[in-house]
Design goal:
single chain, 310 residues, Nucleotidyltransferase, domain 5, globular
Length: 310
C-alpha cells in the first residue's frame, strides 16, 4: 500500500537542524534532529547542505516515498524569490545568499522563509493560532523572533522584515543590537545577552530561573527586568496590530507559569484595554517542530498545484 503524501520541512537554527515529514492535515509523520555545528565560517554552507540532504533522505526512507514539496526555515530575512536567506547579520556565517534549491539539487524549488514566520504558519495551521485571522507570535530563545498574521495571511511587508519584534527599540540610549537598533527587545530579553545582563552569572534562561526559584535575589531582579521589557513589547505590538491573541514560543516560553504568570501581571498594569477587552496570551502548541511544520506547509502553499493562505 502506498504511503500518504507528505511534505518535508527543515528548520535550520543556531543550535539544531530540525526536520519533519508532515502529512496533508498537519500531522508530523516522522522527525529528525542534528546539531547545527555553527562556528566554522564559510565551511558551514557545505556542511549544512550535506546535513540537510541526509535528513531529507532519512525522512523519505522512513516514509517509503518522495516528498511532494520541501521547505526550509532559518533566521534572517528571506530573499524575495524565496530561494535563500538574503540577510542574516552577525550569526550563522555562510547562510546569507545560500541558494537551497541549487545546494540540495532538488527537482522542484526549496521554498525558504524566516524561522519565526514559519513557526506562525505552523501555529496558524494546527497550533495555537488555528482558526484565528489576526495573531502575533514572539519566539523567545537565543534571540527574539516574531511574526504577524493579518487578515488570515502572513504579513511579510515590502521587503520581508515584518514581524521582527526583537528589533523594537525599548531604550533609545541603549547599545545597538545586530541590526543597529539601540536598546532592542532582543538585547533586553534574549539569551544572547543574558551573561551581560546578569554580570556573567548566567548563560541560559534555565540557569537563571533555577536560581530565582531557589531564592537568589539577583536572579529574581534580572528575571523581573526581563519580564518588564517583554511586557512593554507585547503591549506595544497589541497597540499597533490589535490581534486576537499573542502567542509566545521558543525555549524561554517553555518556562510555563514562571513566564506567563508575571507577564500577565505586568500586562494588567500597562495593556490598553478598550471596553475592558484583554488580548489572550497563549503558549505556542507545536513546540520545537513549529518551524519545520510551518516550512513544510509554506512549501505546499507555494507549489504550483496548490494555493491559499497560511
Amino acid at each position: 500500500m502506498n504511503q500518504p503524501a507528505f511534505a518535508i520541512g527543515i528548520d535550520l537554527g543556531g543550535t539544531h537542524i530540525k526536520a519533519a515529514a508532515v502529512g496533508s492535515e498537519g500531522a508530523v509523520l516522522a522527525a529528525r534532529t542534528l546539531a547545527t555545528e555553527d562556528g566554522d565560517g564559510e565551511t558551514n554552507a557545505a556542511r549544512w547542505s550535506h546535513s540537510v540532504l541526509g535528513l531529507i533522505g532519512d525522512l523519505e526512507r522512513a516514509r517509503a516515498g518522495i516528498a511532494v514539496a520541501i521547505g526550509l526555515a532559518a533566521p534572517g530575512m528571506a530573499a524575495a524569490d524565496g530561494r535563500s536567506i538574503a540577510h542574516m547579520p552577525g550569526r550563522l556565517a555562510g547562510l546569507e545568499g545560500l541558494d537551497w534549491t541549487h545546494a540540495l539539487q532538488t527537482p522542484g524549488p526549496v521554498e525558504v522563509l524566516n524561522d519565526a514566520h514559519a513557526a506562525l504558519v505552523g501555529e496558524a495551521w494546527t497550533g495555537a493560532a488555528a482558526g484565528l485571522s489576526d495573531a502575533v507570535l514572539l519566539t523567545l530563545g537565543t534571540g527574539v523572533g516574531g511574526a504577524c498574521l493579518v487578515g488570515g495571511r502572513l504579513l511579510l511587508g515590502a521587503g520581508g522584515r515584518a514581524g521582527h519584534f526583537g528589533h523594537l527599540c525599548l531604550d533609545p540610549t541603549g547599545e545597538p543590537d545586530i541590526t543597529g537598533m539601540p536598546g532592542s527587545l532582543e538585547d533586553a530579553v534574549g539569551e544572547c545577552t543574558l551573561a551581560r545582563r546578569s554580570a556573567g552569572r548566567f548563560r541560559t534562561t534555565r540557569e537563571l530561573l533555577a536560581a530565582a526559584e531557589g531564592g537568589d535575589s539577583e536572579a529574581r531582579e534580572v528575571w523581573a527586568r526581563t519580564i518588564r521589557a517583554l511586557a512593554c513589547a507585547v503591549a506595544s505590538a497589541i497597540n499597533v496590530l490589535d490581534p486576537q491573541a499573542v502567542i509566545l514560543g521558543g525555549g524561554a516560553a517553555r518556562a510555563g507559569e514562571a513566564l506567563f504568570g508575571p507577564l500577565a501581571a505586568q500586562l494588567e498594569e500597562i495593556e490598553w484595554r478598550p471596553n475592558g477587552h484583554r488580548v489572550p496570551l497563549l503558549p505556542a502548541e507545536l513546540g520545537p517542530l513549529a518551524g519545520a511544520v510551518g516550512a513544510a506547509r509554506h512549501a505546499v502553499i507555494q507549489a504550483p498545484t496548490e494555493g491559499g493562505g497560511a
